[in-house]
Design goal:
mainly alpha
């Protein structure tokens, strides 16, 4: 397999992951919009207590318990709107990239870079390692999108010249 084919496959895999993640985010935002924080808090609490009853030091159980406490006292409006728009933007751009729409490449680079900048800002306040990992993944997607854009643009120019 050539490096060009490998980069193309990595690009396709990455944008597929971004698209699926975007749809899940949008779905989560919609659920967050309609489910009351108290009900969500109770559900997270039940899940965490089940995990913690088996292992009091369970990483996921402890974090679910902390999240349930924060959710119970929060207004989900901003999070809902953010998740819906963020998710739809990622899913829409992923579809356009899969369809090789040339206009989508620079737009995706710009939008994904903005998302990464916001994630870096959030990381500077939270120091959450998963956020850092997500930002590195997003930076890789931006780079792969730029490489793929150059290939697609060159192919279009060649076909126009012929």
């Amino acid at each position: 397999m050539t490096s060009k084919a490998l980069l193309h496959d990595a690009f396709r895999t990455g944008i597929t992951m971004k698209g699926v993640d975007g749809l899940l985010e949008a779905l989560g935002g919609i659920l967050l919009w309609f489910i009351k924080p108290s009900a969500m808090s109770r559900a997270l609490r039940v899940l965490s207590l089940h995990e913690l009853s088996r292992d009091p030091h369970d990483f996921i159980g402890i974090h679910l318990l902390h999240i349930s406490e924060r959710v119970a006292h929060s207004d989900p409006t901003f999070a809902s709107i953010y998740l819906i728009w963020h998710g739809l933007a990622k899913a829409g751009l992923s579809v356009a990239l899969w369809l090789n729409k040339l206009w989508a490449y620079p737009l995706a680079i710009f939008v994904f870079s903005l998302f990464s900048a916001y994630q870096i800002y959030r990381f500077s306040h939270t120091h959450a390692i998963p956020l850092l990992i997500l930002t590195i993944f997003d930076a890789a997607i931006v780079w792969l999108t730029w490489k793929e854009y150059r290939v697609r643009k060159a192919e279009k120019e060649e076909s126009s010249a012929a």
